[in-house]
Amino acid sequence: MIRVESLTKVFRRPHTFSGPLGPLRTLLTRRYDERTAVDGVSFEISAGEIVGYLGPNGAGKSTTVKMLTGILTPTSGLIEVDGRVPWRDREANARAVGVVFGQRSQLWWDLPLIDSLRLVGDLYDVPAARFTGSLRRMCDLLGLDDFLQTPVRQLSLGQRMRGDLAAAMLYDPPILYLDEPTVGLDVMAKQAVREFIAETNRLGRTTVVLTTHDLADVEALCERIILIDKGRVLYDGGIDDLVTAYAPPRRLVVELADDETRTFEIAAGRPIPELIAQVAAEHPIRDLSIREPDLESVITRIYAESER
Ligand SMILES: Nc1ncnc2c1ncn2[C@@H]1O[C@H](COP(=O)(O)OP(=O)(O)O)[C@@H](O)[C@H]1O
Ligand SMILES: [Mg+2]
């Protein structure tokens, strides 16, 4: 469904000189600052997959999504989405994809939510009967009924995000791009968003590309992740494989009599009772537990390794 090959985006900005003659020098000197936001990324995503596109701030996630939607033109490389080149065939591509940017609503700020949704229906030429059915489904899935008549500017962030999700899926696109859809949401709203994504994928076999730095989103939704940093792919594969391949050691967490908590690495192959006995011989233990490596610690480790 989505094919990306050696995708690269370099942003160029006129270099600005500082100092008293700075603005003049900036005008007269043609120099550019270049920033490679996406640096030779390749991946393929099949119909019906939910893929987590992960990376720290500035990794190039949003830039990738913008190229997938056709908003940005790649500097080099190739993208094909459902047989189309997004930046060349922007309109047809737009009809095939729903997009939500968590940081920026696509809805009309001053209009009641329902009017925004109607406008989306018109823009995408959704026939009236289909629109009604689609709207009903979105209202049920996302619980929109209570605030359909509220102007978007008055919605809470969680309500607005649900409105944005409805707008993105009203015309039944086979692909959904979500760029940080849970950023800033409370636990309940995050849960609603996750359930919607899971349902959408399950019911319509919608292909979902999800960027986030909330690993709970990924754990709830994705079997596969693509991990990027500094515009490059560090890992592409299953979450389970990732944890197996990179798993940091488990840890023994010990609560001591004086309320101090200490953790000890459980070296691979070392019998745990032996470690406990050793720790107990040296410290008065009140309680202990074993902490399994979580996705976060695995990912932190991958970033640390790529840094070296
Ligand atoms: N329009 C732009 N002009 C110049 N630099 C940009 C622009 N958009 C993004 N960048 C830079 O590209 C890099 C990747 O940004 P982005 O794709 O937004 O990262 P992410 O979404 O992973 O946080 C960052 O260093 C960012 O500053
Ligand atoms: Mg971003």
From TrEMBL:
Membrane topology according to the record: Peripheral membrane protein
Record keywords: Antibiotic resistance, ATP-binding, Nucleotide-binding, Transport
Gene Ontology molecular function, alphabetical: ATP binding
Signal found in the keyword field: no
Domain ABC transporter: 2-255
UniProt-listed PROSITE patterns: ABC_TRANSPORTER_2 (PS50893)
TM helices/strands, residue ranges: none
InterPro entries: AAA+_ATPase, ABC_transporter-like_ATP-bd, ABC_transporter_ATP-binding, P-loop_NTPase
Top-level division of the source organism's lineage: Bacteria
Primary location: membrane
Pfam families linked: ABC_tran (PF00005)
The keyword Transport is annotated on this UniProt entry: yes
Gene3D superfamilies: P-loop containing nucleotide triphosphate hydrolases
Cellular compartments annotated: Cell membrane
Protein name: ATP-binding cassette domain-containing protein
Species of origin: Microtetraspora malaysiensis
